[in-house]
Amino acid sequence: MDDSFRIFASIATAIVLEAMPFLAFGSLLSALVEVLVSPDRIARAVPRSLVGRIAVGIGAGVILPTCECGVVPVARRLISKGAPAPTAIAYLLAAPIVNPIVLVSTYVAFRGDWGMTGARALVAAIVAGCAGFLVRNLSATEVIRGDGHAAHHDHDHASGSRFLAVWRHAALDFLEMGKFLIFGACAAAALKTFLPPESFGILEASRLAAVSGMMVFAIALSICSEADAFVAASFVTLPAAAHLAFITIGPMVDIKLIGLFAATFRRRVFWILILVPTLLVFILSLLLGGVL
Amino acid sequence: MKTRINGLVLLALGLAAGWFAIAGEYSMLMNAAFRWVTITGACLLAIMGAVLTWSPQRVSVSALATFGLFIAMVVVARPHEGGVAPFLAPPKNMPAVNRAGYAPLRLQDLFKSMDVEATDIEERPAAISGFVKRLPGLDAKGEFILLAPLMTCCLADAVAFGIRVKTPDGALPEEGDWVHAFGDIRNLAEPVVTPPFRVGAILFTPVTRVHELVAQEVLSAQSMLEDLYDKLPEDFCSEFRRLVAASDLIETLRTEGPHTVLAPHDAAFERMSAADREVLATDTQRRDEFLSDLIVPGRIRVVDLRDMAALTAISGKRLSIQVANGRIRINNARILLADVEARNGVLHLVNPAPTSVPIGK
What we know:
Distance between the termini of chain B: 70 Å
Shape of chain A: globular
Largest sheet of chain A: none
Structural class of chain B: alpha+beta
Distance between the termini of chain A: 43 Å
Oligomer: heterodimer
Order of helices and strands of chain A: HHHHHHHHHHHHHHH
Number of helices of chain A: 15
Number of helices of chain B: 11
Radius of gyration of chain A: 19 Å
Strand content of chain A: under 5%
């Protein structure tokens, strides 16, 4: 058997094995919230002030842990049930990063580095706040498409007990999100297997090259936010700014999300969701990376 | 359409991950400290799988196809058996060696971060352990790179920190060997850049540009091992040992190599006919032919056997390899004990003998 294929398979398997428990935890917690907390209750809790609305959106990301794969239909449902656009958009962008599971996996991946963990949450909150501000005056019909993407996490909770519903939902979440993890692990493994060691010289040429290169990698690799910190940490020769850029842009904008965004949101909001994270992550990573 | 396939896939994944964490070559892919995390995740997956199997749901074709391809890749490539980075840890039988006056030094301590060397290292006698990377440009100078691996979480983040080693007499250890090197750490006046290289699955191999080790002694794991004859287990390989000891082939197993020995278990001789045992005891030519059929040139481990159709013994005899249900057989002989490393080769304990006693002419 070709050595390259065996190396590729070993690295891909290692990444999947490493991220699998975190994805399983995330799926289970997400399922608990999905089954036990109604979106209506969340909508009633939203305050009137813009700052309050954005803060609630970001805060919901902390207590309503959802991967980027599951957050789009949840945000759409929140908006369609009357939650203000700033709240839902802030939640959409922040939730994949500020939730405890992702922050713990970031902390573990970066060997107990609170600076990197905090910077990741801070950048996500700033990006979510700015995007929320830009959609402050938009109504529900101006934000989401009427015939938009159906919530792909809808499951039948009527049958069986709530206990079974939680596990069933977690299992389906895992299956749905696991495929993106496998794609990402394979893409990262292919890069690690076939990229000549000399090519990292390009990323190492300057901080600008490292940050922009890693952002392109993050968008292309589409790695789950619960696992991407491990992948970023493996690019050990790159500066902290590049790591920060990789782990903040990926959960907010990647190839699989771009398709979901396009199917769910109006064009104006779509471009806000793509451009605001890209520009802010680039700038903030360069600024914060210098002090990490 | 509702199906139980989703659940069965998750259940299988959970059980496989749990088995691997408990009984597989876990440390070849993952940092062993993560074992409990993997086991916990595997339990969660198994419960999810059981629930989905109990109450079937609509099948997600794309998810199933992705998981199916992943499982197929694992079945074909067998990454759980290791092999792409056997140098992540020293051989289990490599003894620790201390030399008075040489203080142990971890290679990662020569780096302040992953790509910035520490320039304030005191020049002193040091003992460094790691594996060997040979580069064409260094061979001519009697130098090699000594690398110490560091795996934080999993194979994907593995890094090997390196230093150039000048050997005392120009004698270079084998590529991939684990060695203990004893010598003087020196700071270089001018940085020396080593061309970038990778080692198996390890892409990141930073080599310090401002230090070198001028070695007085380099002990390789292989050189510290016993020879093939001495490694033959006396408890259950006594008959094969006795036959080899009576033959000139004992010198082959003591001094030549590297060779791979397919040593039959004592039970293999017990199941031979009385006539065959008589031949081995009395006919030295047929005995030596029989023994020569069991010695193969080269150091061939089980992981290598999976990719081979047959072995050719030093006698010229062809021994076919069969792989069924993940188990390897050589001419239908089972491998009872695999990969016993020796200084001059590797031996596998087999039963029955993978060759028959030659027929008299």
